[in-house]
Amino acid sequence: MIHYKNVILVGTSHIAIESIKEVESSILENKPDLVAIELDPIRFQALLSKKRRIKISDIQKMGFKGFIFNLIGGFIEKQLGKVVKVKPGADMLKAIQTSKKINAKILLIDQDIRITLKRLSKEITWKEKFTFMKEIFKAPFSKQKIKIDLTKVPSQNLIKQLVKKLREYYPSVYKVLIEERNEVLAKNIIRLMKTDKKILAVLGAGHIEGVLKIIKDQQD
Predict the structure, then answer these.
(1) With CB atoms 3.0 to 4.6 Å apart as the test, which of 61, 172, 181, 219 could cross-link to 123 if both were Cys?
(2) Spatial distance between the Cα atoms of 49 and 149, rounded to a whole number of angstroms
(3) Angle at CA of residue 195, ends 190 and 200, nearest 5°
(4) Residue 35 contacts residue 202 (beta carbons within 8 Å)
(5) Residues 61, 108, 110, 80: is their CA dihedral positive or negative?
(6) What is the pLDDT of residues 133-192, one digit of tens each?
(7) Contact at 8 Å (CB) between 103 and 34?
(8) Is 12 buried (19+), middle (13-18) or exposed (0-12) by CB count in 10 A?
């Protein structure tokens, strides 16, 4: 949890039990006026309904490659969630539920998922696709393994390692999923900070450092 002026940034892991507890305690203890969540309207509705189906129009808007990437990412996250017995997005759901308890206003600050996936579909290179497939096949035989406790939010050092590897091997993926979204998230948080209300922002841990840097650069 990081405090900066009238905003509190809480970094989470979407399938970590520790994240759910930290999100709840952070909101209850700080009693913010506004809770900003790393969701867009589509993912927000999907999280609440749990039954939303992908439409043909959605595939057209996000691009076929983006749609496939979303399916793969969702499947992997779901399987990891089963390991720790936590449903993906439980941290964000807890933020929504806890915000309602204290009557804090909930604001969605992420970019439309269809725009993100369409950008990814456009930017990802064949080299990155090949590297991704190669990593999947060689993973079971690799001797270099990073130990991660899925029940906890990764440390900042570990996050830096993972982000560095992502940027090195998948520069287009890093650009679209991390860098561009950091700009969107930071811009929306800065807009909220101008209200002078107490804000608590719940973001994926991988966004915290980048978002905070952008906020500070534009505030100082």
Answers:
(1) 172
(2) 29
(3) 65
(4) yes
(5) negative
(6) 666 555 544 445 545 554 555 556 666 777 777 788 888 888 888 899 999 999 999 999
(7) no
(8) buried
